[in-house]
Write the structure tokens for this entry.
Amino acid sequence: MASNHVSYDATASNVRLTRPPLNGSKHSSSSIQRTKVLVLGLRRSGKSSILQVLFNDLPPNQSFYLEPTYRIAKTQIDTVVPLELWDTPGHATPESIGIPIGDFRSLIFVIDIRDLYNQPITKLVSFVTAAFQSNPDINIEVFVHKSEKLQEDDKIENFRQIQERVTDRLLDLAPEYENIQPNFYLTSIYDHSLHEAFSRVLHKLIDSIPYLEDMLNVFCANSQSPKAFLFDTKSRLSASVSASRHSPPEDPQSLSSNDASSTSSPIMSTDGLPHASKRTPKEMFYPSAATSLHPSTPGTTLTYHEITSSLALMALVPTSVYEGRRGLLEYNVVFFREGVQEICDVEKETREVG
């Protein structure tokens, strides 16, 4: 495990933060096929601070002292899918990356929200067109970053202008670029917007996300949970979210067993008995916790359950269900856990090289 320690080189005139390595995987890149994500942007746009805050728990107020990126830095991150993040210097070009742009599943371009001039737009468009020509299915993600620097009205106006200029520039180059639909996100390392944006990027990289969402929805229906989240415990990024279409019934005794025969999540059988697991549970201790969201007027309980070494489930559950039917809730968690572990095992097997 990489250390989170950061060191300072102090002089009379400045303090420089030496960039610590990200908390990524120690596996060799040749041992497993990883989903590649290219992170781009001009110097001081905030690329490295985004990655350090997300994956290395760097306090946002220390990101100002990070050294600029001078060469491509590759970092391996293990979550639902194994990722390889390429942090590039500000002078990078499509030709200097070293591999075809089409080898990347996603391209993240970080642009300072205060920078409305020609240079960042030109650089963004050059990478977008190169990526589209190499792989029309590549995900183009634009983080309009450092939104905390502007007042709300100016923030919205600059965000709108950046979107319009990118779109207009693409249309001016060629009519077929009208099919390119970059996704724009307003982000800041000082609030939840960065985690929300990167979570949406991650969702597009998880091919098994329909199955994860189905299992979450069945878990919610059978546990009377109005909302549940599967998230990465290290980065706190969301890996999957329930659809919130299941409203908790008023009667806590009517804990549902519908969809019990579904292959996506055999929570309960129609006779009320749990299905036997088809796989041997991994020998591992799975911590769990719960807390009432309204101590003065009990009504909703937030539960936490570890699912794998890197994933956890958080669910909102009526307190009456948690206190009166906790055993059944735990059964639902067990089968949800086994389903997620099976998906992760299959993902790992299909990506193993040699």
Q: What stands out?
A: Residues 1-16, 25-29, 245-278 have pLDDT under 50 and may be disordered. The chain is about 30% helix and 20% strand. The two ends are 25 Å apart (CA to CA). The CA atoms of residues 224 and 248 lie 5 Å apart.
